[in-house]
Design a protein that fits this description.
467 residues; mainly alpha
Length: 467
């Protein structure tokens, strides 16, 4: 009973800190608030549900209550320690940072978007057709792995999100669609298209990962229509999650509920207990999984360039959990970031890792708020979405892989916009200067052409006339 009380108290504290950050920043939808709220769900509320032993519900891959007191104590203390460290990182240099500049698409930005989207469109169609064909031939609803050589098609199909997002921002840049009603219709329609484009994955969280950047960038437009937008998004998300979950469980004896989702489908509390049991028997890994993640992403880029370099004989966290829990080299289990930090470095790893993650979330959110370019702002929003959804419930490979491969078009556009920033600034200054001159020096009326055009003709200097 005591562990449940401790987790419940710190869950309340976590939500209060998240609300304080939102009020202090001046934006409810900010990276730090959403990250803190997600941590409470993944680690603390997950623990409450797991330790409550909801009758009739599956226990997940690892049962802390069966493993013993040491595993339970590690799971509780590690989850609380992670919340404390992340809270310190999120409130560090906390200051009001509302998005006040409201960047829009400049003429150069539009040409960049046209060029990049025209280049990636054939690859997007190829990726979508290939992955939809694989999904049709697969016996499972959710695609968890692909054949060797097909990974590129996965990421190319993800690029469809950027075509939809940038086209939506382009339409919203027209004066006719500047109102909140049109913004609501366009954003909700774009989110629906993103869900359809990624339907082949059979995943739930990936839709939120890829759709959140567009919502964050257009939040100021949607705010006047929030009474329509928030219920619409909530209902659509609930229906989508229910349908995907039902499709996954169709034809099986498995069941799913809100309790199982909070416990182990999205929650990761019990896997921290697994990390304690694993280190007790085999010792700490001293950073092996993080080095493997770094080498995997780096060598993946090298292989895309045509140079085949095999990965070093290092194990990833999903491989370790799959071998230890399921005794399988083919089926992997994602243990979550807390477990990966503990299995490598113990409690010190959890504290330092969550502290750095909180600091990084604050830095990303500040960059998003201060972005003067809409392309850059969408890129920072995407990075913030990855920080929220591709760290706590994922493994060390997830964030970098999604950033480099799935986010490649945004990275390219961001680099081009940065390189052309001086030219854009100069062009805008020239336009503003010409506009000011047009206002200050209007054309001389033809009907007054017979009058003298200089003050000196009347014997009065211009300075004296102005005085």
């Amino acid at each position: 009973m005591l562990p449940i009380i401790v987790l419940a108290v710190f869950s309340g504290v976590g939500f209060l800190i998240a609300a304080y950050v939102a009020r202090r920043v001046g934006r409810i939808l900010n990276v730090r608030t959403l990250l803190l709220a997600n941590y409470v769900l993944v680690s603390l509320i997950s623990g409450i549900v797991h330790l409550s032993k909801v009758e009739g519900q599956p226990r997940g891959f690892f049962d802390v209550t069966v493993a013993g007191t040491p595993a339970m104590a590690t799971a509780v203390l590690g989850s609380v320690l992670g919340l404390i460290a992340m809270s310190i990182g999120c409130v560090w240099r906390l200051q009001r940072a509302p998005v006040t500049n409201r960047p829009r698409l400049r003429r150069t930005d539009k040409w960049i978007i046209i060029a990049v989207l025209a280049v990636i469109f054939p690859f997007v169609m190829s990726g979508l057709l290939r992955m939809q064909a694989n999904a049709a031939l697969s016996s499972t609803v959710r695609i968890l792995s692909v054949e060797q050589g097909d990974a590129r098609y996965v990421f190319m199909s993800h690029w469809s999100v950027w075509i939809i997002s940038f086209l939506a921002l382009w339409v919203l840049s027209f004066r006719h669609f500047d109102g909140p009603t049109w913004a609501c219709i366009i954003v909700l329609g774009s989110v629906a298209l993103i869900a359809v484009a990624l339907e082949w994955t059979g995943g739930r969280s990936i839709i939120f990962v890829m759709a959140l950047p567009l919502v964050l960038v257009t939040a100021h437009r949607l705010y006047p229509a929030r009474m329509l937008v928030v219920p619409s998004l909530a209902i659509a998300a609930a229906v989508f999650v229910a349908n995907v979950t039902g499709d996954r469980l169709a034809g099986t004896r498995q069941t799913s509920s809100l309790a199982t989702w909070a416990d182990w489908e999205w929650g990761r509390f019990s896997m921290l207990g697994f990390a304690d049991t694993y280190t007790t028997q085999g010792g700490f890994l001293h950073g092996e999984t993080f080095v493997q993640a770094l080498m995997n992403v780096t060598l993946g880029v090298v292989r895309l360039l045509g140079l085949y370099v095999p990965n070093p004989p290092l194990r990833s966290m999903p491989e370790i959990t799959g071998q230890a829990i399921l005794q399988s080299d083919q089926t992997h289990v994602v243990a979550g970031l807390n477990s990966e930090l503990f299995i490598n470095f113990g409690y010190a790893g959890i504290f330092v890792g969550m502290l750095l993650l909180g600091l990084f979330a604050g830095w990303v959110d500040r960059r998003f708020a201060k972005a003067e370019n809409l392309i850059a702002q969408l890129g920072w929003a995407y990075l913030g979405s990855l920080v929220i959804f591709r760290t706590l419930a994922a493994d060390a490979n997830a964030l970098a892989s999604f950033l480099i491969y799935s986010g490649a078009p945004v990275l390219v556009m961001g680099v081009l916009a940065y390189l052309l920033r001086d030219r854009c600034t100069l062009a805008s200054e020239i336009c503003e200067t010409q506009g000011m001159r047009a206002v200050r020096a209007p054309a001389f009326p033809s009907r007054l052409a017979h009058l003298p055009r200089t003050y000196e003709d009347h014997g009065v200097h211009g300075d004296d006339q102005r005085r």
